[in-house]
Protein 1
Amino acid sequence: MSDDQSAASAAMAGIGELLSCIGPTCGDTVDWNAAEKVYRTSFPVDYRAFVAAFGSGSIEEMVGILIPAVSSDEQQGNTVSRLSEVALADFSVNRWSSADRGRHRLEDLLIWGETAAADTFCWITSDPDPDRWPVAVYSRGDLEWSVYPCGMVEFLLKLLRNEWPKWPISDDSLQDVEDPRFLHDKDEAAGRESGDDPWE
């Protein structure tokens, strides 16, 4: 096992102990071979493990996690995606923190999550090995991208443990959550449809 895969396994074990799934639906089964054909790339080991354990949904209604499309038709939905043509053409979107300025291209970003405060979570996919993809976060508060040299699960684990030296997202409400919860999109939708707040 590579160092990257070892770090991913350790991070997944940590988030599995910290994050609880509060609905009946926990995890999604994804045809990864089909997804790889749609996106023309494979996906990181830690992300696959997170999707299997938790799936698409949100952490405390703040951090949303996306899963990949397995057909071109599904790409029109709320799935993993590249930045839109509009975003790529918008000069104001191509703003990076001083440490990362000029080092990365918007075209290499692949969105895997978002926040209720309109922040965007991506991988920088320039490395041919997905397990070496760092995380890039566009903070609506700072109006710029910052890069975190770790995988998606390690990023989330440090976020939930409040271990980043500078808080990476625009809303700080997660800083006070001791026992974070995950709710699958299916369960949240079912709760809303029945008139119940699944977060209560």
Protein 2
Amino acid sequence: MLKHYFKSFILAFFLVGCAVTPPSVSQTKVTELSLLLQSLDSSISQGEAMRLSQDIFHETQKLTKEFKMTSPPQYHNFLVTVGVREKGLCYHWSDALYAYLSGRGYSSFEFHLAGANIGEYFYEHNALVVVAKGGKVEEGIIIDPWRGAGELYFSKVEDDAEYIWLHRPKRGCL
């Protein structure tokens, strides 16, 4: 009988996974992203860059809860694929952030979708790119909360050593 309960516990653990508590928003990280955003163009105000940075971090926290993220993210993908979780694939993150941020009325920024390893089933990855108004995606900033299971990764597109990003203007986001 005890053996049956143990097996049930193990099965439940693997089906549910280790839930991720949304990371607290570090003011240091918010400021770091804000400065990076401001570096996109000299005309970007400190206030608008800070507001965007705060929005990105807070929306990431909200989505981490909403998606009931588990770690590692590849395991979460498995849970979505088998129907245990509803959302949380990389494109769910990029689409949700794109839709949210596009509706926030930023005058100095544009938002784009990017992909890496496009068409490779297990390796394709999607993220959001922030650029200065009229800027090139290749000069933008990658916003990727998926790879850290809700822990926000950000860097200049050209500095992301893990992926080679391509603009996906025709993919659509909704």
